[in-house]
Amino acid sequence: MPDQQKLQLLWQAYLTTLPKNHSHRFSLLPDAWSFGDSPQIADRLGKLVLNGIKTATCSRYLGENILDEAGLSIILDGDGNPICIIETYEITIRRYQDVDEEFATAEGEGDLSLEYWRKAHWDFFSREAEKEDYEVSENMLLNCERFRLLYAHSNT
Asked: What SS3 string covers 37-66?
């Protein structure tokens, strides 16, 4: 559980960088989450976002309203500390097998290849499937999200 005070401090710092009537000034505190399924992966992927290398992510599509995933998010490191604010601006639903080289590169992981993406994500979804009791397959639907970095914590 992230520290609410730290989340508020990051959010307030971001808001001070915006013009007086910017729409984000009227937004609620965004959801906070981390990438991956371990503190080490959260740290590694968070750094890729901060360095402008990671501009996309994906998750298993559960049939929910994909628009709920759009908008602002606070990204956490492996210790649950807020490191940045991102804005998801595009979401597409694709089958695992239909993810292309361009999206794999935007995910920013490993050598940026589709081959690396497929192995790393198959491994991730396989670990997740063991916990959540679903079957990993080439036809599995994914939320494929593109985002931009809006604000980085000054201590990162």
From this structure: CCHHHHHHHHHHHHCCCCCEEEEECCCCCH
Distance CA 94, CA 139 (A): 9
Question: What percentage of the chain reaches a pLDDT higher than 90?
Answer: 90
Q: What is the pTM of this model?
A: 0.92
126 vs 21, 28, 112, 146, CA distance in Å?
A: 45, 34, 21, 23
Among 35, 32, 85, CA closest to 57: 35
**Residue with structure tokens 């089958």?**
95
- Evaluate whether 150 touches 87 at the Cβ level (below 8 Å): yes
From CA 10, how far away is CA 13, in angstroms rounded?
5
For the chain, domain boundaries: 4-152
* 52 and 105 Cβ atoms separated by less than 8 Å: no
Residue 44, C-beta contacts closer than 8 angstroms, at least 6 positions apart: 36
CA–CA separation, 48 vs 106, rounded Å? 11
CATH class of 4-152: alpha beta
As given in the structure block, the two tokens for residue 42 are 């959260």
Q: pLDDT tens-digit profile of 9-55?
A: 999 999 999 999 999 999 999 999 999 999 999 999 999 999 999 99
